[in-house]
Structures
1.
Amino acid sequence: MITVHADVVGSLLRPPGLLKARERLAAGAMALPAFKAVEDAAVDGAVALQESAGLEVVTDGEMRRLSFQSQMTEAVEGFADHDLDAFLWGDWHGGEDAGDWSRERPAGLGITGKLKPRRHLAAEEFTYLRARTRRIPKVCLPSPSLWANFWDAERAGGTYASLDAFLADVVDILKGELAELERLGASYVQLDAPHYTAFLDPALRSFYEQRGWHGTQWLERGIALDNAVMEGFPNLTFGFHLCRGNQASRWLVSGDYQPLAKPIFRRIRAQRLFLEFDDERSGGFEPLREVPEDKTVVLGLVTTKSARRERPRELIARIKEAARYLPLERLALSPQCGFATSVLGNRITPADQKRKLRTVVRVAGEVWG
């Protein structure tokens, strides 16, 4: 099992050259081989950044993704045509710095046919990353019940009779992906599951209940689906990331983890829980009482949403506070979320990003040696 005390969540800021190349590729002004060279160079830069910060775990920065979850819709047939807005809808809050932002759920989201993989989701990401680092390569995949965001019973037609049938195929696709990643030598996979915190917001909870499950079903069935994905891979260490929304320095919901703590912390198969605690919206550490002995909590204390300079002394004090509820050796440190959940990225600079990653490593070294 992976036991490092300095970790990362996944995404990093996309370089301007990569963003421009994406635009040119979409406009037909750039050939795919040339684009892939730009994409590869961006991954090389992501690896170099993380290694120079001193991290033992590295990702590819999700440089090949439009959004943290977009590899599913790019690699699998059966989803209706969509653009970036498919991953951005909701009532986002940004405070004085980023401002509020509201986007309607695109009317065209839905399922147009039976899901059928046309390629692997993350095999290219992993094999390229594995060849360019001697650190621990981590791959991030979306939680299966997150795909209820795309479910529309009317548009599904006769393809899927229910949400359960649709998500069963999502589980099978993700399990197939894990089997391929394991075959290729992967040892560390993270499931991203920000939708669970929607239960902290009445409007978002109502949306999910309209998909077909009600009340506690969303927690019970969602956890069962996540566990079904992870079952049968004893050689993989699993992380499980729970944030409250992260898009262009904005967030979706507020509230502590207490309503989710018992069902998720106690029952999820993942060994490492990535939890955000970077501001007052996150509540206190009391829910950590519910974490069983076989799990580590990776404390997301370093914000990715702003350029705020975290002081090591303050972070160490917060880690010691969390250790009142969980032994210090079962704690670790990371940024609170990715730096660029989609190609939009958060409102920080590459220098801010670099400094924050180094702060994570420095503080982890001081606390755990």
2.
Amino acid sequence: MIIKKTLEQIDGIRKAGAIVAEIIASMAEEAKPGNTTAMLQDVAKTVLDKYRAKSAFLGYRPGLTMPAYPAYVCISVNDEIVHGIPGSRKITPQDIISADVGVRYNGFVGDAAATYVMPNAPKKAKRLAWITYQALHKGIAAARDGGKVSDISFAVQSFVEANGYSVVRDLVGHGVGIQLHEDPQVPNFVDKMHDAPLKSGMTIAIEPMVCENGYATVTTADGWTVKTADGGLSAHFEHSIAIIGEKQDILTLLSDGSEPYVPQKVL
């Protein structure tokens, strides 16, 4: 069931989203060669404690066959697409690091992601992050009252593929706000089987997951980390948004209305 939100509820989601954005911006400052992915999680925990907010990911279990997610945020490196678990892995000067953050605050949920690009990452990695960031905003611009989820999907897929990349099929965006995952599904590829009308008051998470090469995935032995099957690089950007008539209201921005992280423009 799709949950349409009141303006008051949307404001609550925005407050949770601002904490998400602060975490993403704070982790970006510590996403440096030599630091570990666990250190990024420590930054996230500090911000959560500051607001007395909760991680929407810690302990999350989507099904009885999966283990509970054991960390506060998802940190995925290079060929890891999503759901990477922070740990002792050290960041190298060539890496790209995707950070996915979900926050529960005063009964509402915000969800966003960004891919940090290290200074000596190859040009192909920098371009992949830039194209993925642009694809997110193409998808956001296509979300409007009276449209369909497939409008978002087409905007993302067509832009990504025109630039020589592929979009993941096994994972999709989703409704968000009261729960972490709500209806409808928001694929990054046109899937008429999971299409849905877009209405004013809907809040959704749009999240292109873009692969350097093929879009096939594998899940590692930890039960969570999803990687590209061919070892190619992957990038991930996400915002939670509200649809208000013909407009799109991004709910995961910093308190001053700016983006928490913008990758370098690479053509």
3.
Amino acid sequence: MTLTFFSNFLIHHQTPFCEAMVKRIGDGFRFVATEPVPQERLDMGYRDLEDAPYAVNAYMDDASYREAMRLGEESDVVIIGSAPDEFILKRMEQNKLTFRYHERFFKKFRWRFDPRALRQRYLQDTRYRKKNLYMLCASAYTAPDCRYIHAYPNKTYKWGYFPEVTRQPYERLAALKSRDDDVRILWVSRFIPLKHPEEVIDLCRKLKADGRRFVIEMLGVGELRERYERIAEEERLGDHITFSGPFDPEEVLDRMRRSDIFIFTSDKNEGWGAVMNESMSSACAPVACREIGSVPYLIEHGKNGLIYDKHSKNSLYANVSALIDDPALRTVIQKNAYDTVNDVWNADAATERLLHLIDCIQKGTETGYTFGPCSRD
């Protein structure tokens, strides 16, 4: 089998899936990057992985572009994410098996979108509804958007991002967690509006006012960081909140492994949020907004995480407080979060399931998956 994955650029969140695919089909796998890694990402500690042995960098020169076009036409299977459709136009004419890989289409209200956006969705999706084209949903909100535009009828499958999972046993991670000292809470993101760092500051105020024992680390860079550092200083929150970063991905994972609770405060503009996978794999107890694309797929409320409602004033506070006040609950959720990612939502499992899904599509049979990657959505 030959399978080619097209996307804008290759970063560490994609490499575990790529490497798992290479293990299974060898040189039959290629990743086509259509643009270099943006400087903003490099400044955040991301590495440029254009020299990966399976990478084809279509933006580099004419020969690489021609090879990318050939792979788009001739590969047995293509997955296309954030990449121009020019790479798959011929295979659509030939009705070859293809998967789109997409976050939610409409991050604002559906009834307010630009008509040009609807036309784009028609050209990329709806007009191919009868073709051999399927959707790998990189958000729990992708499938509803597909139904809204009458695309991918009965052809939407749960997918996502599959960053590196921890290779450490749960018992070793559990030993790094708090017992009698302050509960360690971690937030990892860019300081930009859609990430809502102000919710973390508000949470800190409330927890401090209640006299709870905790420390919050806000890890990241961005345009709003200085503002919230200043607010924390002015309100004398320094004993309970620190600001750090940027760090490289391994240093971020080390922070996660030493944290008890991971809070994820983004709104509906967060497509997936790979830090969700990483924190759960590191045995953090996650508290996350239900609007984030990964949350309905990864978290079962009360079992392996807690889901809060951004539109309820005290929802984040109430859920974090519950975990601070109940160490037994926190421990159960940490273990279940670890199992969820390390057993099911990881690159190895997703690759095995995708290859099975491809086989089932070609044979006209069902996969039998009822949850996790490649189950129907």
